[in-house]
Amino acid sequence: MESFKKYFLQVVNKKYIAFEGKADRAEFWYFVLYSFIISFVLGLVFAPLAGLFNLAILLPSLSISARRLRDAGHSPWWLLTTIFGIGVLIVIVLCALPSKTTSHTKAK
After folding, report:
1. How crowded is residue 57: how many other Cβ atoms within 10 Å of its Cβ?
2. pTM, entire model
3. What is the pLDDT of residue 102?
4. Most CB contacts within 10 A, which of 2, 14, 17, 22?
5. Are 73 and 61 in contact (CB under 8 A)?
6. How far is the CA of 36 from the CAs of 30, 51, 59, 71, 102, in angstroms?
7. 99 burial class (0-12, 13-18, 19+ CB within 10 angstroms)?
């Protein structure tokens, strides 16, 4: 339950449309996991609620995806490939890659 507060609620409350910065793999994948679980449960209870929930988290989903792509060393513009269907798989693979270290974050 602590990871729910730390990752999902932090993204939804504090970083709702924060496209700048970076997001580590844990933050991204916990957000995806909790979004899927909540949407699935709402879909079982009342399908329109799941649709409203998915609409409500559209911007946070885009922002955390852009931040995750940036952290993995890729351009957030890769999100535009999701329009063509197969691009979804490309973005999932890019988001699954480990974080890139930059010259100012390398341990000396």
Report:
1. 20
2. 0.85
3. 60
4. 22
5. no
6. 10, 12, 15, 22, 32
7. middle
